[in-house]
Amino acid sequence: MKFTDDQIADIGEEIIKVLKSVYDPEIPVDIYELGLIYDVQISEDGDVKIIMTLTTPNCPVAESLPQEVKDKVGEVEGVKSVDLELTFEPSWNKDMMSEEAKFELGML
After folding, report:
1. Which has the closest alpha carbon to 40: 76, 4, 64?
2. Which CATH architecture describes the domain 5-88?
3. Are 15 and 40 in contact (CB under 8 A)?
4. Phi-psi label, residue 57: left if phi above 0, alpha if psi -120 to 50, beta otherwise
5. Fewer CB under 10 Å: which end of the chain, C or N?
């Protein structure tokens, strides 16, 4: 079964909600607002590709955080598979954070 554009948009919204429930253990802000999620692609078949980064390559959760993202996104209704690509290009910086994240951390 192929998903319609509307269904894909709905799945995307659910994925973003899930991503907002995942936190960087060192910063009290979720990974979505931090700007660690570079891209979320959803195919008509429900295959999801997420491109994300970490605040630093030697982040203490370099192995567990991507796995947590993969597991949680995989539980979203309509998601058939999750391909997660970890990248450090471009490397993350504070400018990638949302206004909300900057406000939470007292940077505004």
Report:
1. 76
2. 2-Layer Sandwich (3.30)
3. yes
4. alpha
5. N
Look up residue 17 and give its two tokens. Answer: 């909600």
Domain range list for the chain: 5-88
Q: Do 11 and 1 form a contact (C-beta atoms < 8 A)? A: no
Question: DSSP label at 30?
Answer: B
DSSP conformation class of 44: T
pLDDT 10s digits, 61-90: 888 999 999 999 999 999 999 999 999 999
pTM over 0.90: yes
